[in-house]
Amino acid sequence: MKKYFFVFAFLFFFVMFAFPKDIYVRVGSSGNGTKDAPYGKLWKAISKAVRGDVIHVAAGTYYGKGGSGNFTIGVPNLTLVGGYNVNFTERNPFKYFTILERAKDYRGGFVGLGEGIIEGSEKKDHSGLIVDGFVLNSETRNAYAPDKSKIIPKKSWKGALFKAYSRNITIKNCILLNPYGNGIYVKWQGDKNEVSNNFIINTFYAAISTRSAQPNSKILIKNNNIVFGWFQPGKGGSYGLFIGKNGKVVVNSNIFAFFQTEGGEAGYAVSNNFGNDFTELKNNIFYQCQGGFYTYLDEDGKNLVVWKKEDFDDLNSDPESYMLEEAGGNKILNPGFKPDKWYFEKFSNFVASKPGKLNMDEMNQIRSILGLPLEASKGSARKNWGMPYPLSKVIPNLVSNKGAGVVVNKKFEEYSSKSTGGENLKYTKVDFEDFSISKRGKTFNGEAVEFFAGIGSNGYDYFLKDASRSDYVCVKFIKPGESSFTRKYVFGYILKGSKAYKKFLKYSKRKDRYNKAGGIKVKGKAYYIGKPSYLYPVGIIIYDLNRH
């Protein structure tokens, strides 16, 4: 009986952890990541995730490893899904807050700590990352005056809330607030990037930046509420959207409101000062942007600002003259927000000191709705500056019914893990010599094989159509007992971020030890690579690696 139990347990472990899976996380739980027994810590689920995993996270507050408030992603095609109730039977990110933030009592250091609350590793592929349904709050990463009326920059964390470097990044249905820096900063690559249905609130510098976008990238920015931006003398800002010179940027149905400036610098809803004429600007709402609605570099190299209604209307009808590929349907309109009373009093007192291109009558109308005096108190601009916006006053306070911005009442996306191949295969044990040209080398055409081999050097030849250079690493697996200089090797192709890839990285650190002991067990599909001049003309898409 014990024997059968052991076999069952092994098979369960293999099925659960060898291939992409759905992982569940709930604060206070101590399970192994199943729906019935979730992990209690999100950072642990991320550290164990492989390519294609979907991590489902219930409502609650998650502080990161050691309370650091940092969650670093280092595998491709990972999906993080928040906003579930405790039983994972309902998902509504704007009802069930899944909060990521730094612990107030964090005692760790800052060397090596990632800049973002969610951050893709700069050294590891995290392409295809989807983040859906989280609250990223930087308030606990910052320092404020005792009454929280102003931020203390020298003691605050100078980092974006969300940062990534790989291609095809999606962040949606999130609330991002209170960074002393950018809201979203990505080195945009690929043509499937999306920032949609997010609240991005109370940012310094840019709420969204495409400054580092790469050529031929495409970024969809749609249905976001981008609200309250701060300028800092000597540092710059504030921008709702900062557009870089590269990439096609599609800006549709967003709300840009309340951007502050000083001395006529910044305070723009949208900055196109690199003159990116592959930009589309459609159906957006603009309101109370102190510096202006849109700034751009025209074809003659002049930096110009659209802040008057007549120029704004002309932009809608003649986009080409404003370095836009397409435009139309944009409006200057009060979105109907009712911001937090405490916060808005201080914000409006600040901008009253230097009103810039604002309609102070409209600003005072909002003050009246909130029960504040009709005239903001003019005074020191530094008296009320960069204070935190409260999460509890985002919904419904910053929700609009004017046909643009975040939609909070809808059916939210459902996710499940997808296969990366290799499941349920029956492997045939073969000897390494079977891969030789003199034996069976030419006969392999997708046969599932199991064999022993040593780990050799990296390869650079991608012979198999199903193993692309962008998604796979190529490694030479050598005949057991041979040195790394041998010609007796086959090409192994390992999917980046997969379980096999993680094992490969681990085993490579001690490959001399394993090679001397007869190699490691390799499982995969073998193919003839069409090179009869090679001693072992075989390429193998590898699904699993194991020590003896």
Automatic annotation (TrEMBL):
Where in this chain does the record put each Right handed beta helix domain? 164-297
InterPro entries the UniProt entry points to: Beta_helix (IPR039448), Pectin_lyas_fold (IPR012334), Pectin_lyase_fold/virulence (IPR011050)
Name recorded for this polypeptide: Right handed beta helix domain-containing protein
